[in-house]
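sry for the spam today, last one i promise. C-alpha cells for design, 60 residues
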C-alpha cells in the first residue's frame, strides 16, 4: 500500500485567503504538482518536461 502524498505549498504563494497556490509532493521516484483550487487534478511530469515548464515560466 502506498503512503499518502504530503503536499507543500510554494513559498511564493500568498498567505492570505486566496487559494491559488501551487503545491508539490514528492516520492522517491516522482514529483507531483497540483493547483490548490483543484486538488483532484495532479501532474507527475518527467524531469525533462518539468525542466521545460520551469524554463518557459522563467522566460515570461
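last one done:
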Amino acid at each position: 500500500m502506498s503512503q499518502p502524498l504530503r503536499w507543500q505549498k510554494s513559498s511564493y504563494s500568498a498567505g492570505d485567503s486566496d487559494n491559488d497556490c501551487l503545491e508539490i509532493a514528492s516520492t522517491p521516484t516522482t514529483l507531483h504538482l497540483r493547483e490548490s483550487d483543484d486538488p483532484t487534478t495532479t501532474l507527475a511530469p518527467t524531469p525533462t518536461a518539468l525542466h521545460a515548464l520551469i524554463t518557459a515560466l522563467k522566460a515570461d
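The chain has a mean pLDDT of 84. ok im logging off now
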